[in-house]
Design goal:
Elements (H helix, E strand, L loop, with lengths): L4 H21 L3 H25 L6 H31 L4 H6 L3
Length: 103
């Protein structure tokens, strides 16, 4: 049995809210980065689902998904570099430690 549009939208919504919950409740920068990746993956799933079921002859959703994956890879590389630099200087990847760097 092939999953329908509503099944894919339900999975995408669950991924999105798990990502939002993880981003808002965690203090570890790595977990926050993984939560952002979950949110971006749910958006990609939405694009592919709508592309398949609403506009089956078009490839716009697939192109947006490839673009989002490329942006997410660049974002992850920059974020990991920042996290490594923060860990080297403060020996912690806690968000509150990063907040102390402002002042």
């Amino acid at each position: 049995m092939e999953p329908g549009l509503y099944h894919l939208l339900f999975i995408s919504t669950a991924l999105f809210f798990i990502g939002v919950f993880g981003f808002l409740t965690r203090r570890n920068l790595i977990t926050m980065l993984m939560s952002i990746e979950l949110i971006l993956n749910s958006v990609c799933l939405n694009f592919v689902a709508f592309n398949k079921y609403v506009w089956p002859g078009e490839l716009d959703g697939v192109f947006f998904t490839v673009f989002i994956i490329a942006i997410a890879a660049a974002e992850a590389a920059v974020a990991i570099a920042i996290i490594i630099n923060l860990y080297r200087s403060h020996r912690s990847i806690d968000v509150e430690v990063a907040g102390e760097l402002k002042g």
